[in-house]
Each structure stands twice: as C-alpha cells, then as structure tokens.
Specification:
heterodimer; A: mainly alpha; 65% helix
C-alpha cells in the first residue's frame, strides 16, 4: 500500500515568483484562486454579471502585465484587490447613469438562512417577502450608495474583511473606513427600513 | 442591517462560471496578441496612404526648380560682417574708469613729476588682444 503523496498548495508568493520567471501556469493558479473572491467584490459593486465578467478579465490581464513590477511590499491579496477596486471604481465613474442590472440568482441556501427568515417574515406572515424581492431591494439600496461607500460595505458586510485589510486595499486609514461604513449603514437603514428588526 | 446585507453573499454567478473563466482568460490573451498595436496600425495606414498617392509627372522638376531658386535667394542674402567700428561702438557704451590713479615716478625727483591730487586724467585703454582676422592663418 503506497501512501498517497499530497502536493501542498503553493502559496501566493511562490506562484508570483514563478510567474515573474515566466511560468504562465503559475498565474493560471492565481486566477483560479482569486477569481471567485474578486468576482464577488466586482459583482456587488456593479450589480451586473456581464460587466463583472468583462471587468474581471481586464483585472487579471492588467495584473499579468504588471506582475513584474510587483515587489511584494504588500501581499498579493492586497495588490490584486487594489487593482480590482480601482478598475471597478473607474468603470463605474464611466458607466455613470447607464445601468442595466442583471442580477445573479441567489443560492437556494438563502431560504434556510436564519437572517433571511428573520428579515423577510419577521414573525409576521403577512409581511413575507420573496427572495427575488429582497434581492431587488438590496441591490437598489446598494446602488444608491456612492462608489466609496459601496466598496466598504461590499468588503466589510458581504465579504467579511477586517477594517485593517480594507484600509490597506483602499489606501486610507482605518478611521476613514469606519466612518465610511457608518455613513453607508445609515443610508442603507433608510433604504431598507422595512427589514429593520423590531 | 449588517445581517441583511450579508444575504447578498448568496448571489452567485451561473453554474460552471469559474471553470470557464480561465478558458476565457486564455482566449482573450491570445486575441490580444493578434490585435495589432496602435503604432503598427498607424504605420500601416500611412504606408497604404503613400501607396495610393501618385506623384504628378512634373513634380520632381518643379521641386528641383524651387530648391534652386531658394538656394539663390539664400546666397544673395549673405549675413553682414561686423566691422571694427561696430566693436568700438559697443565697447564705448560701458566705459571703465580707474579711480584715484597716482602716477609713479621712475626718476629720483618725485616732486617734479607728482601732479596735484585734483588733477584728472582721461581714461586710456590698452587692448591686449588683436582681432582674430589679423592673425596669420599659419602662425602656431
């Protein structure tokens, strides 16, 4: 009986070094590793699947072109997220009022989420809201936020990043992150007052 | 509010999206390689424009005659040479005066040659250099 050799997953630093030496398969691994997370970041900012796909392709293309300039002063994670955030904000500034939301279908697990049950029925069966209704309202509320506020809500509330990581990605102080979150939550509370718990 | 917003994490891309993402990335990279750069595009446009451009039969003769006429005009309008007079005028515009000049006697009798202190002397100049044009071309 032979013991199955498990190849340990390469860390980002090693993959970056291999890419810088000209190994394109190393970058492929980085794409596979980062695309789901960056998809979420860009998607929750744009609320459009097609725009997200195009933007994400451009983000990875830009990262590949400039990876030789990556000196490791920050982590690759921070670097990639910074590229994604900057490109998305630039895109949103250009897109401006031309918005055609194309929302992805929520995962069916949402219906079992206690927060979803609490938010939609809130103990009152007459006030039941469907998944799509809730999704529509959440997206509308997110789109009302400024780009700077939307990005902090996406990273903190949806993706669960700590304040310190967000401040590194955005290049602002932690205080600024907290302040933006405070104002964004206040605005979201106004937009989503019907889901407020009693 | 935080909990309600967190529900957005359930919004997922279509099934199999991430599997196809890398394939699309490779496809786009290859397409980008085939796409000509801006400089190449401009070069190509310029060369095609030049190939379409037909030179009239008498254009070369016309261009040659224009060049000859321009040469004659330029040669006739030779730049004026500066004369020594011009130099003297330019130097005299900023005269140099030497204050409290006391002549020194080389003889023994100092009182015979010493001038009163209020005596004035017209300024005199000594040019150290000769004009370059006076130099012999073969002097080393």
């Amino acid at each position: 009986m032979t013991a199955e050799l498990e190849i340990p997953p390469h860390n980002d630093q090693e993959l970056v070094a291999r890419t810088q030496k000209g190994d394109p398969t190393a970058f492929d691994e980085l794409v596979v590793r980062y695309s789901p997370r960056l998809y979420g970041l860009v998607y929750h900012m744009t609320s459009n699947h097609e725009d997200t796909n195009d933007l994400l392709q451009d983000v990875f293309a830009k990262a590949y072109r400039s990876i030789c300039n990556f000196r490791g002063k920050s982590s690759f994670y921070t670097w990639m997220h910074s590229i994604a955030v900057n490109m998305t904000i630039n895109f949103l500034k250009k897109r401006n009022r031309r918005q055609h939301p194309s929302m992805n279908d929520p995962d069916s697990r949402i219906e079992n989420d206690p927060d979803f049950i609490a938010a939609t029925s809130n103990g009152d069966p007459t006030r039941e809201v469907t998944v799509h209704e809730l999704q529509k309202k959440l997206n509308a509320a997110m789109q009302k936020l400024s780009h700077e506020h939307r990005v902090v809500v996406t990273m903190f509330d949806i993706q669960g990043m700590p304040h310190a990581e967000i401040s590194k990605i955005l290049g602002v102080s932690e205080g600024t992150v907290r302040s933006r979150l405070f104002y964004a939550h206040r605005q979201l509370q106004i937009s989503l007052h019907e889901f407020k718990r009693n | 509010m935080h909990r309600v917003i967190r529900l957005k994490r359930y919004e997922q891309p279509p099934q199999g999206y991430h599997e196809g993402f890398l394939r699309e990335f490779h496809h786009r990279q290859r397409a980008e390689l085939l796409k000509p750069s801006l400089s190449a595009l401009l070069r190509e446009r310029f060369s095609s424009l030049m190939s379409d451009f037909r030179v009239p039969a008498m254009a070369y003769a016309g261009a040659a005659s224009v060049a000859v006429i321009a040469g004659v005009v330029i040669l006739r309008q030779a730049p004026p040479t500066e004369t020594p007079r011009a130099y003297s005028v330019s130097y005299s515009q900023a005269p140099v005066t030497i204050q409290k000049m006391q002549p020194v006697s080389l003889r023994g009798d100092a009182s015979a040659t010493t001038l009163p202190p209020n005596a004035t002397f017209p300024p005199s100049y000594l040019l150290q250099a000769r004009p370059a044009s006076y130099e012999s071309s073969l002097s080393f």
